[in-house]
Sequence to fold (111 residues):
Amino acid sequence: MARNSGDMFAHLIAVVRRVPRGKVATYGDIAYAAGYPGAARQVAWALHQSSGAPWQRIVGAEGKILLAAEHGQEQRLRLQQEGVAFRGLRVDMKSHRAKLSDLRRSKGSHA
DNA sequence: GATATGACGTCAT
DNA sequence: CATGACGCCATAT
Fold:
């Protein structure tokens, strides 16, 4: 089976869209949860290519915002508006990092 | 097909 | 914590 990049982006974006409001995920987490460990860079590409996805909820490792200055400012503002708390220049991942088990597929644990 | 680039991640210094 | 280096993978030229 081919697994073309088109499928890859679709899966990546699907996972991105699963990140709940008020929470965030890292590029690596998205790639891993989508089934493409190591494709963290492609997550960024997927966000470029797609529109409508909650790009603001995707941050770098340790909750660091990687976007360029102005866009980074916008991302931070948007996250704060969603209720995400910051710790210096990073998101308070300790409280706002989405769980991989929550991103993998809906369903999941049922209690 | 090769080289350079990028909203990455981890490790070493 | 900042910088440099390497690994990873798709895109642009």
